[in-house]
Every structure is written in structure tokens, then in C-alpha cells.
């Protein structure tokens, strides 16, 4: 067991609590055994850790990181074993102690499990950069453990030269087992070339053994971030970097009650970041995404979420999970090694055409996450939708990003193209047409149907011809097409035309204006919705509150076709003299 220092109480008495110091970090050892028995160790764990945290703050320093450091978790990256978050660094020592020991107890425990884990585990704590080595020893109030040889002094370690280090690198490259006693890289590694990285402590141990003429082991020197080991390795031309992150698999949640709680929390977060458009539709202003909760047809009292809104063929449905650890479900709740809950969905967009596998990855630009714990051996590609333990705004933003990527992928698949870059400029679209078309007989006889939408557009185009501002159409490369863009008398106008005046017409028109202004880069344009005849006063007021100006036109059928009468107020903002 490697023990370097013992904590000394304010009374001057030794406490049964031990730690190591590595640069600006100290490793506080775990408690074990029963007090009074020979196997007991570090019995004063709790009082000593509270004392150390208090001394750090009293010295004007502060904790700048805390992680579990047990043998079972050292293979994980540091960010996967955090027990004190950044915004908790300034907290009072007693609060820091409570947070850290509480997280030790539930670390890697299933959500909802009883709190039966240990609160006295081995931890690594980083103190501010102003506290290193002897300074940190003084701040913590510790002294070297009696009866143990100390680490090699600095003047011996500084005898290691660049030649010694290069020899050690070559030796380890030829024979990875040539440094017995040294383990694999845990937090740091040295970069030898593009393909080779080695554990810094093993390299330096071999180099020091050659320089000093005797075997140097891992307990003889520190390998922390501020150590002589790291300084000499970098001086020899070998950068010391953090160990490359290795993906940590997510675990499918097994408990259905936990899944339902997380699912309901996700819906609550979306609703908190949205406003109602009526008829069960909600709009996320910040992300230009519409969604609607719908009763699940597979589980009673559960709700599926349909996102996207305007074009049903491009929308995405995220279904409520049907059971725990279901690898065959379209959606699931999983958790990471620290117990955080995440919503994941398969990379599979059903419909025509279907989008999945390599095509889904390519068209969305998303990377699948590794997931384990399924009750069936079926392999699926899962993708992160949202971290459900984050704030509602972050949950909504992550969900919206996933949905918009999926919608773009659908549009690209339908068009047979890759998704255009977000900066792609809008394209000119073709003009509208008026006249009539023939409706085929089904249960009714054939009949001529007037293209009212086209007649309105052509009438407006005629009124805005030179010397007026003119009317044009724009189309997104994924196929979305806006009805009109007008220079306007008081600023540019983004126009949507509807041939009805129902609530559904208003919902669709407002949603299109919101989406198209973002997708086509027309956020500075005035949004105008043109309806056939006047809608209800409630809809007029609701539309205005969304930042959309609403005007109504009238049309009549004559012997010569369709006659369209556009409102004077609308024509005035367009810069037209009127219907004459």
C-alpha cells in the first residue's frame, strides 16, 4: 500500500487518515475494516476529510476538482467519475463533504436503487494551482508517514536526461513488459508519434533506473501534472497529454417506473420551453420546432411526441418506451456510469424513403452511442436525443437539434441529395400559376377547381410590377419553398398565402413563417400571413402576439375567372398604390 502522508489534527495528534500528494492534487485513501481490529485502516476518514477541506479554504486556496479514484473506476476518463461539479467549487467545506460522499454512495448504482454504497472511498482532489508540493503539504497540515522511506529527492530525479528518456521510450516500444510494477496510462500519456502513446510514469521510471543505477519503482516519484517527471519528459520532446477519451457505454434502464418518470420529465422540459398554438400544438420559439403530444396506441396512460409539425412527411416521432431495457424499442431511457439519465432513439426514420444505418449517420451528421444492457441480442444503432438531468432549456435545445437534423435527412433522402450546408443560400423558385385544374371523379363527378392560391399570387405580382418593389419566391435546397419575398415600403416582407381562414390555416401559416425565416436566413424580414376572408378575433390577436401581421383578402368568381381584392393596408406596406 502506497502511503506518503498522515493527517495531523489541530491538537497536534496524528489522525488515522492518510493521503498521497501529486503536484497540485492529493489522493485521500479509503476507509476499511472495523475500528479496534487489526485490519482497520483510515478510521478517521470523515473528520479528516472535513478538516482538509476546511484548511484548504482557510488558506485562501480552493478545491478545483474531485473524482473517485478507486481501482474499479480508474479505467474511466476523469469526467465520468466527477463527485464535485465546477459550480460547487466555492461551496462551504461541510457542503462539499456532503456532496462528495453522497455521490460516492450512489456512483454506478441503478437509478432508484437503495443507497447502500460506500461513503468512504478513495478520492482524488485538486487544489488551486497556487498550491503545489511542499506548499500543499503545509496547507493540508500533514506530515510524512513515520517508518517509510520517502520518494526520491528532486536532485536525484533531475539527473534524468533526454538521452535516458529516449532510451526508455525505445525500450518500451520494443517490449511493453519491460517496466514491471508500472500500470497502463490512467490520466496522462506521452505522445511519441501519430500511432504511439506511452504511460509517462513507466517511461520515466525506466529512464530514472538507467540514470541512477538502481531500480526505480512507481512509489519512488510522483507522476502528477506538476511533477518533475512531466517536466523532464516534455523537455525531452515528448508532450504529456490527457489520456484520449474512450467511449463509455450507456446502460439501458431496466425499471419501468424510472423510465416513465424520466419520460414525463422530458415532456415537462419541452412544454416549459414552448407556448401553445391551440389544438394540442406547441411551438418552441427558440428552436423553430413544433410538437404535439399524442396518446400512445401501445401503452395506456402514456404519451408519444410528434415533432417537426409543418410537413408530416418530414416529422419525427419519439415513442414512449414500452418496457425496461428494450433493445427493440424505437426510443429508450439509458444512464451513463455516473447515473445520469439520457433519452436515446434509434437511427431509423420510417416511411418513404426509409432512412437508417450509414445513410442516417451521413445525412444527420450524428454519431451513434454505444449502449448495453438490452434484454434481447438485437443490435441497434442508438443516438443521443437529450441529457435529461440538465436544465429544461438545454433539454429542449438538444431535442430540437436532433429533430431538425432528422427532418433535413428526410428531405435530403426524398430529394436524392445530401443535406445542404446551413450556410447554403436560398434558390430562386418558380412563379405560381393560376387558372383551373381538373379534379378526377371519385364519388363525385369531375369538376373544374380554381387555383385560388395562384390567382392571389399573380394578382399581387401584377400590382407590384415596376415601378413597384416586385415579388419573388425563394426555395431552400432541401425543398422548402416560401410563397413570397417583397422589398416593401418600410422593410422587407416574408409572405405566406392561405386560401382558407380556419385555425388550421393560421397554425400552418404562422409555423411556416417561423421556420422559413430561420431556414432561409430571413430573420430580419417582416412576417405577413395573408388569409382568405377575416378569421376570428381570437386568432387575429393570437397571431399578432406571435409577431406575425395578418391581413385578409377576398375573391369572387366571375364569368372571366377569379377576381381577387387585396387589402389596402397590406398593399401599403408592400409599396403598392392599391387594387387599381
Brief overview:
With 580 residues, the protein is of the alpha+beta class. It contains 14 helices and 32 strands. The chain has 4 domains: 140 residues, no CATH class; 89 residues, no CATH class; 164 residues, no CATH class; 130 residues, Trna Endonuclease, Chain: A, domain 1, CATH 3.40.1350.
Mean pLDDT: 81
Number of domains: 4
Low-confidence stretches: 110-115, 419-427, 439-449
| Proportion of strand residues | 15-25%
Rg from Cα: 33 Å
Strand order in the largest sheet: 5-4-6-3-2-1-7
How would you summarize the topology of this molecule?
Blueprint: E1 5-8, E2 14-22, E3 25-28, H1 45-58, E4 63-68, E5 82-84, H2 93-106, E6 123-127, H3 133-140, E7 142-144, H4 154-157, H5 162-174, E8 188-191, E9 197-198, H6 200-212, H7 228-235, E10 240-242, E11 250-252, H8 256-272, E12 275-278, E13 281-284, E14 289-295, E15 303-308, E16 316-318, E17 331-335, E18 341-346, E19 348-349, E20 355-356, H9 357-364, E21 371-372, E22 382-387, H10 392-415, E23 427-428, E24 436-439, E25 447-450, H11 452-463, E26 471-472, E27 474-475, E28 484-486, E29 493-497, H12 503-519, E30 526-532, H13 537-545, E31 548-558, E32 561-565, H14 568-574
Parallel strand pairs: 11-21, 29-30, 30-31
Antiparallel strand pairs: 1-2, 1-7, 2-3, 3-6, 4-5, 4-6, 8-9, 8-10, 11-17, 12-13, 13-14, 14-15, 15-16, 17-18, 18-22, 19-20, 23-27, 24-25, 26-28, 28-29, 31-32
Helix pairs in contact: 1-2, 5-6, 8-10
Amino acid at each position: 500500500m502506497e502511503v506518503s502522508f498522515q493527517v495531523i489534527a489541530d491538537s497536534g495528534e496524528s489522525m488515522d487518515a492518510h493521503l498521497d500528494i501529486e503536484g497540485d492534487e492529493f489522493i485521500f485513501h479509503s476507509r476499511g475494516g472495523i475500528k479496534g481490529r487489526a485490519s482497520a485502516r483510515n478510521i478517521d476518514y470523515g473528520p479528516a476529510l472535513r478538516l482538509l477541506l476546511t484548511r484548504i479554504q482557510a488558506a485562501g486556496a480552493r478545491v478545483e476538482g474531485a473524482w473517485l479514484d478507486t481501482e474499479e473506476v480508474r479505467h474511466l476518463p476523469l469526467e465520468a467519475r466527477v463527485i464535485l461539479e465546477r459550480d460547487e467549487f466555492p461551496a462551504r467545506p461541510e457542503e462539499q463533504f456532503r456532496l462528495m460522499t453522497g455521490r460516492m454512495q450512489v456512483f454506478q448504482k441503478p437509478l432508484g436503487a437503495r443507497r447502500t454504497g460506500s461513503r468512504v472511498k478513495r478520492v482524488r482532489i485538486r487544489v488551486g494551482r497556487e498550491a503545489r508540493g511542499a506548499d500543499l503539504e503545509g496547507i493540508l497540515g500533514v506530515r510524512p508517514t513515520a517508518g517509510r522511506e520517502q520518494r526520491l529527492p528532486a536532485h536525484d530525479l533531475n539527473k534524468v536526461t533526454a538521452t535516458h528518456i529516449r532510451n526508455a521510450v525505445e525500450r518500451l516500444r520494443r517490449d511493453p513488459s519491460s517496466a514491471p510494477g508500472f500500470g497502463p496510462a490512467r490520466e496522462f500519456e506521452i505522445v511519441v508519434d501519430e500511432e504511439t502513446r506511452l504511460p509517462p510514469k513507466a517511461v520515466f521510471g525506466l529512464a530514472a533506473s538507467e540514470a541512477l543505477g538502481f531500480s526505480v519503482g512507481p512509489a519512488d516519484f510522483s507522476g502528477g501534472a506538476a511533477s518533475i517527471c512531466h517536466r523532464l519528459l516534455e523537455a525531452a520532446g515528448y508532450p504529456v497529454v490527457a489520456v484520449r477519451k474512450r467511449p463509455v457505454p450507456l446502460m439501458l434502464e431496466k425499471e419501468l417506473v424510472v423510465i416513465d418518470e424520466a419520460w414525463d420529465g422530458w415532456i415537462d422540459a419541452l412544454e416549459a420551453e414552448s407556448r401553445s398554438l391551440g389544438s394540442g400544438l406547441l411551438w418552441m420559439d427558440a428552436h423553430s420546432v413544433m410538437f404535439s403530444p399524442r396518446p400512445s396506441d401501445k401503452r395506456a396512460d402514456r404519451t408519444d411526441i410528434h415533432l417537426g409539425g409543418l410537413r408530416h412527411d418530414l416529422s419525427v416521432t419519439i415513442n414512449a418506451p414500452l418496457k425496461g431495457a428494450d433493445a427493440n424499442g424505437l426510443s429508450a431511457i439509458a444512464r451513463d456510469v455516473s447515473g445520469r439519465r439520457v433519452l436515446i432513439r434509434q437511427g431509423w426514420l420510417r416511411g418513404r424513403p426509409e432512412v437508417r444505418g450509414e445513410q442516417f449517420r451521413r445525412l444527420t451528421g450524428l454519431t451513434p452511442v454505444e449502449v448495453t444492457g438490452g434484454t434481447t441480442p438485437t443490435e441497434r444503432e442508438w443516438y443521443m436525443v437529450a441529457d435529461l438531468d440538465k436544465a429544461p432549456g438545454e433539454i429542449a435545445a438538444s431535442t430540437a437539434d436532433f429533430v431538425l437534423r432528422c427532418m433535413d435527412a428526410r428531405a435530403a433522402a426524398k430529394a436524392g441529395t445530401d443535406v445542404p450546408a446551413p450556410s447554403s443560400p436560398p434558390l430562386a423558385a418558380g412563379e405560381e400559376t393560376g387558372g383551373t385544374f381538373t379534379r378526377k371523379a371519385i364519388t363525385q363527378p369531375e369538376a373544374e377547381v380554381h387555383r385560388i392560391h395562384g390567382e392571389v399570387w399573380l394578382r399581387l405580382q401584377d400590382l407590384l410590377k415596376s415601378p413597384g418593389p416586385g415579388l419573388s419566391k425563394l426555395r431552400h435546397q432541401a425543398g422548402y419553398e416560401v410563397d413570397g419575398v417583397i422589398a416593401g415600403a418600410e422593410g422587407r416582407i416574408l409572405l405566406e398565402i392561405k386560401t382558407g381562414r380556419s385555425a388550421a390555416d393560421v397554425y400552418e401559416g404562422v409555423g411556416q413563417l417561423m421556420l422559413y425565416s430561420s431556414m432561409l436566413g430571413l430573420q430580419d424580414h417582416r412576417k405577413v400571413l395573408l388569409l382568405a376572408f377575416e378569421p376570428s378575433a381570437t386568432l387575429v390577436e393570437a397571431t399578432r402576439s406571435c409577431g406575425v401581421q395578418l391581413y385578409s383578402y377576398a375573391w369572387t368568381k366571375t364569368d372571366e375567372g377569379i377576381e381577387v381584392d387585396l387589402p389596402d393596408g397590406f398593399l401599403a406596406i408592400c409599396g403598392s398604390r392599391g387594387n387599381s
